[in-house]
Amino acid sequence: AVDSPTLARIKSNGAITIGHREASIPFSYLGPDQKPIGFSLDLCAAIVERIKAETGLTSLKVNYVPVNSSNRIPLIQSGTVDIECGGTANDRKRQEQVSFSVATFVSQPRWLVKADSGLKTAGDLKGKTIVVTQGSNAVGFAQGVNAKEQLGFNIVQAKDHAESFLMLNTGRAAAFMEDDILLAGLKAAAPNPDALIFLPEGYAKIYYGLMFTKGDTGFKALVDDVLSKQMASGQFEKTYAKWFTRPIPPKNENLAFPLTVELTERIAHPSDAVD
Amino acid sequence: MFAVLLEQTADGQRYIDWLVSGLGWTLALAFFGWWIAFAVGVVVGIGRTVQNRAVAALARLYVEIFRNIPVLVQMFLWYFVLPEILPVALGNAIKQIPPPWGSFFPALVCLGLYTAARIAEQVRAGIEALPKGQVEAASALGLSGYLTYRHVIVPQALRLIIPSLTSEVMGIYKNTSVALTIGLMELTAQARQISEATFQTFTAFGAATLVYLALALIAYQGMALIDRAVRIPGTGRGEDAIEPAATHAIQPIDSLPDAMEVVK
Amino acid sequence: MNSLDFSVVLQAWPYLWSGLLFSLALTAVAFVVGLVLGTCLALVQHFELPVLGRLVRGYVALMRSIPLILVLFWFFFLVPIVISHLGGGGRPVPIGATWTAFITFGLFEAAYYSEIIRVGLRAVNRGQFEACQALALSTFDTYRSVILPQVLRVASPIILSQTIILFQDTSLVYVLSLTDLLGAASKLAQLNGRLVEMYLVIAVVYLAISSAASQCVAFLRKRYAIAGMRR
Amino acid sequence: MVTVENLVKRFGHFTALNDVNLTVAAGEKIVLCGPSGSGKSTLIRCINHIEKHDAGRIVVDGIELSDRMTDVNVVRREVGMVFQSFNLFPHLSVVENCMLAPMKVRGLSRAEARERAIGLLRKVRIHDQANKYPGQLSGGQQQRVAIARALCMQPKIMLFDEPTSALDPEMVKEVLDTMVELAKDGMTMVCVTHEMGFAREIADRVVFMDRGCIVEEADPEAFFRAPRTERARDFLGQIIH
Amino acid sequence: MVTVENLVKRFGHFTALNDVNLTVAAGEKIVLCGPSGSGKSTLIRCINHIEKHDAGRIVVDGIELSDRMTDVNVVRREVGMVFQSFNLFPHLSVVENCMLAPMKVRGLSRAEARERAIGLLRKVRIHDQANKYPGQLSGGQQQRVAIARALCMQPKIMLFDEPTSALDPEMVKEVLDTMVELAKDGMTMVCVTHEMGFAREIADRVVFMDRGCIVEEADPEAFFRAPRTERARDFLGQIIH
Ligand SMILES: Nc1ncnc2c1ncn2[C@@H]1O[C@H](COP(=O)(O)OP(=O)(O)OP(=O)(O)O)[C@@H](O)[C@H]1O
Ligand SMILES: Nc1ncnc2c1ncn2[C@@H]1O[C@H](COP(=O)(O)OP(=O)(O)OP(=O)(O)O)[C@@H](O)[C@H]1O
Ligand SMILES: [Mg+2]
Ligand SMILES: [Mg+2]
């Protein structure tokens, strides 16, 4: 019924390939038994159901492929992965390569600091050492903030998020800049989450979406339709609450990250706009 | 193609300044790391060959540990774990060293000690490759153990291993790139940062590659110069040596030094 | 820092194990590809073939002059383009980080193995070549039956210790976000915040495997030394 | 069997052989001697085409050696060579050393090659060591294996380059005995050696070289009693203490 | 000068020297001979304490060698040793080779050491090569430097381990001549050598060893003419072709 190359491929293979992340809490990560779980994967489950119905396949096989930040776009382009269910930011540059669903989440870069550090605002970071993760877009943000607001902090670049977080924890860096939800995940997983707090400042908004091949309007329509219906029915908010405001595996901690104004707005009016 | 390097960056410099500062850190790390590595390596290498069991075992332990853990992991241990196991005051003092020095010193110690383990093996191989007769001749002349090492064994062993030391020199300067994992913005890290800031991947990595090639060439030529300067007259290939006719009969079938290793 | 808690490592063991398997697989493939290709490269240089010889020397020098991290970056961007050109298509064919790693390590190690074998070839006594000539053996038979077997035996300790280095170097695939032993550890650490424990454990794992391998090398060398052949 | 005419061999600017003429008839045994560096090794290596000569002619078994020849192995097959430093293949056992060339070059089957090898190893009285490796044998034994290895190719002529000078004194005799036996079987031989007793016993002719030239050719008895040239006299004076 | 009593030396399970007794008086010259592996080298290396013996006594110049001695170099200073393979230090020039030990061990000044070295190099007729490196010399020259180097320590006794067997035939004589001269100066000497002419000329006694034991001790004339033991007869038969 729907004219879509992706669906045609899924139908002829009898299988759908889902790309997932390994440590992107709570969107997409490996659960206690090393199987992928997460918010985005729950959303994708509904999409899989719909595809099953659409293609009329009685048994649709679901293959999971781990992806990372550098290979997720190429894998979508080559058709190795039909849909990425991760925590991928939608932006103009990426839209030239791939397509995104309507926004499923809104985040913004923030500062995470130690509670006992006495830091209250970004202004207090003057002359301090702050950490960002190599290759993250926070590197550019931090440099920009530093230049624009004349803060004069030293920037260290750690190899990955875990090391950035460790730098913060061991006192090597006074603050860690990253997307708020990512920081919330790291904070929740920390042995003592209360020892860390966010500074009030937040910077530009970043919209996350599910990612799939560019130009397949039929497939995009299907995905957006599934998500919009969930948003309209309140199912979306239930799923959100399950992952963001209740204890989740592997360690049963609570991200305590209630619905933001921006996301509520998008739930009311589903959209894939990026600003 | 390299025009982008002259453009302004977000922090008001030009991209080429990033590269130059990266090169500076790379060079500083390689140069000072080398002297640490050489000094420690020669001592440990000698330690591997002495009669005293305890010393030899210690030297061996050193080599086993430092040679068998990836540099990447060692970097991490020096940077993150060391300050935690030191007395709190000292640990905090270390953590308060501002960047980039806070990354530089751990990287320096890490590379120096890692490379030292490898040099120690070369030195040991060099010493073991010397004909037994040399030590015997020295003993027969009444030279003590110390004098034998000082005047007979070490000078010859070091000359013997110059070619493999060349690869260690190349190795240490290339391993400096691993320091990017603890946040030192050396050459490779800068290239990567430029590539992410400008999306000019080929330019960024191309420029860094050319710089590394030039450095390799310099290191190689330098070592060749040293090799020539300390070469023993009469042992060069096809020099003015008179080939003693009998020696080619008693030469070993394989004169490849045992632990001659090619390193990256 | 909070007190160490190694229990997380135990829970995560299956994932670490799969990372270790990847490291080992990468090592094994790079070893085989590198050794076969490296031997060819060494022979090309040894025969001093006119153009090819220079090309090979340039390739080896290039590989030996650039840090492995940089080589990995290069291949990650270059290999898809090269393949698409070979395939005639316009669009770069992304081949994925895994393939990139296998290809890169194979080609990279080939340069190192070829150096080892080249030195080994030079170390073979000239008398061996002359004896082959005197026995009228063809060039192929000379290398196949006499020279290469000796070179591989003589160079095997060095080849194997290079392979141990290779095993350690596989940790650098983190730049491709691949999940080798180290990658598994740092990803898990992101889930549970126990980075220090993870690194300490994998340091011990690397140490154990590499030391065991070098002991093995020493043992094999004694066990299978050609009777009476020096070393 | 072998004819060498006006042979010239240079290494760079250095002339190692200068206008050398020599004929070896079938069955003849020639001993080459002379001071170190006089070109003895170079001469026999030219006969085997291990060194390429620069001028002159070398004809071995009716085939002329030259750069233009398509396959020098045709000649080498017929010429056996024994080196001062044995040059056995250390990674092959004694019998495999002897089997390699017959199998690869003469196309013998493994069984045939082994049979022939064992036969010749027996001849040099070393068949009980057939499965050992060269490194496990004494120098004298190794050199006898080298002789057997060369004989396995059934050469028409054997060249020896100081076969005993790398040996301990007690082992020289076992090798020389083997060579004497070979000579008595009628093999054509060219030997570089300073073993005067051996030369006296089997040589048809002693050829004395100095500085790249053949200085004297004589019957061994005459040569050792009273060499004609001064240089040969000096040389003999030096090596007989 | 040297007294060896009931000397036993083992390598693992192998007994290299078995109950050896030998006395060397001051000024005496002894030639040691015997088949390869008979323990000749081991014996003289024990005298220099380069090998430690397992049982028996060795007294050199009045000092007993034992594990308990605090400084074996006290003895080694008085004993010069010359090896088959020269063992010169390749990274030092000829004169530096000779100066090293006198300066470091005897505490001579650089000038004194040089003077002594040049004197002894002159004695072995090689002072014109003093600034060359060992690799630039022929074997015979190297061995003469090795002799001069040992003499620079002004030893009371000299040990030689087959000093000529790694040399080309023409170079043997120059080294033997040097040794003869040294003998005539009255040096106490123990030489392992198979040079029978040399033994005849200077030896006070020939000691024949086999399988780790001294089998025969005799006056050289008598020994070469008619050795008493069968083993010595066999041995002489083998090395004189
Ligand atoms: N490959 C070579 N390159 C340069 N010079 C060489 C080469 N081979 C031999 N020569 C020179 O040629 C001369 C003759 O050498 P050759 O080996 O034939 O002498 P020889 O009579 O066999 O001496 P020996 O008794 O020492 O074996 C020597 O001066 C030697 O240095
Ligand atoms: N370091 C060692 N380890 C084990 N065995 C040894 C060692 N040195 C010598 N031997 C053995 O001791 C025996 C005597 O050796 P030695 O070198 O004294 O003999 P030699 O009479 O000097 O022989 P040659 O004439 O070959 O020099 C030999 O069988 C030898 O194999
Ligand atoms: Mg010769
Ligand atoms: Mg000996």
Automatic annotation (TrEMBL), chain B:
Q: Where are the transmembrane segments?
A: 23-46, 58-81, 101-120, 202-223
Cross-referenced CDD domains: TM_PBP2
Q: Does the keyword Membrane apply?
A: yes
Look up keyword Acyltransferase and say if it applies: no
Q: Which InterPro entries match?
A: AA_ABC_transptr_permease_3TM, ArtM/GltK/GlnP/TcyL/YhdX-like, MetI-like, MetI-like_sf
Subcellular location per UniProt equals: Cell inner membrane; Cell membrane
Which keywords accompany this UniProt record? Cell membrane, Membrane, Transmembrane, Transmembrane helix, Transport
The record gives the membrane topology as: Multi-pass membrane protein
What Pfam families does the record point to?
BPD_transp_1
> Which part of the chain is the ABC transmembrane type-1 domain?
23-223
Family the UniProt entry places it in: Belongs to the binding-protein-dependent transport system permease family. HisMQ subfamily.
What name has this protein been given in UniProt? Amino acid ABC transporter permease
Upper lineage:
Bacteria, Pseudomonadati, Pseudomonadota, Alphaproteobacteria, Hyphomicrobiales
Automatic annotation (TrEMBL), chain C:
Q: Which SUPFAM superfamilies match?
A: MetI-like
Q: What NCBIfam families does the entry give?
A: HEQRo_perm_3TM
Species source reads Bradyrhizobium agreste
PROSITE patterns from the UniProt entry? ABC_TM1
User: Where mainly located?
Assistant: membrane
Span-the-membrane segments of this chain are: 20-44, 65-87, 93-113, 154-178, 198-220
What's the name of the protein? Amino acid ABC transporter permease
- Topology within the bilayer: Multi-pass membrane protein
Record-stated family: Belongs to the binding-protein-dependent transport system permease family. HisMQ subfamily.
Q: Coiled-coil region(s) at which residues? A: none
Pfam families linked: BPD_transp_1
Domain ABC transmembrane type-1: start-end pairs: 20-213
Q: Which UniProt keywords apply?
A: Cell membrane, Membrane, Transmembrane, Transmembrane helix, Transport
List where in the cell it is found: Cell inner membrane; Cell membrane
From TrEMBL, chains D, E:
Q: Which Gene3D superfamilies match?
A: P-loop containing nucleotide triphosphate hydrolases (3.40.50.300)
Q: Name one GO molecular function term.
A: ATP binding
Annotated coiled-coil positions are: none
Q: Which InterPro entries match?
A: AAA+_ATPase, ABC_ATPase_HisP-typ, ABC_transporter-like_ATP-bd, ABC_transporter-like_CS, MetN_ABC_transporter-like, P-loop_NTPase
- The ABC transporter domain is annotated at 2-236
- UniProt keyword annotations, A-Z: ATP-binding, Nucleotide-binding, Transport
Family to which this protein belongs: Belongs to the ABC transporter superfamily.
| Functional note | Involved in beta-(1-->2)glucan export. Transmembrane domains (TMD) form a pore in the inner membrane and the ATP-binding domain (NBD) is responsible for energy generation.
Q: What is this protein called?
A: Amino acid ABC transporter ATP-binding protein
Which source organism? Bradyrhizobium agreste
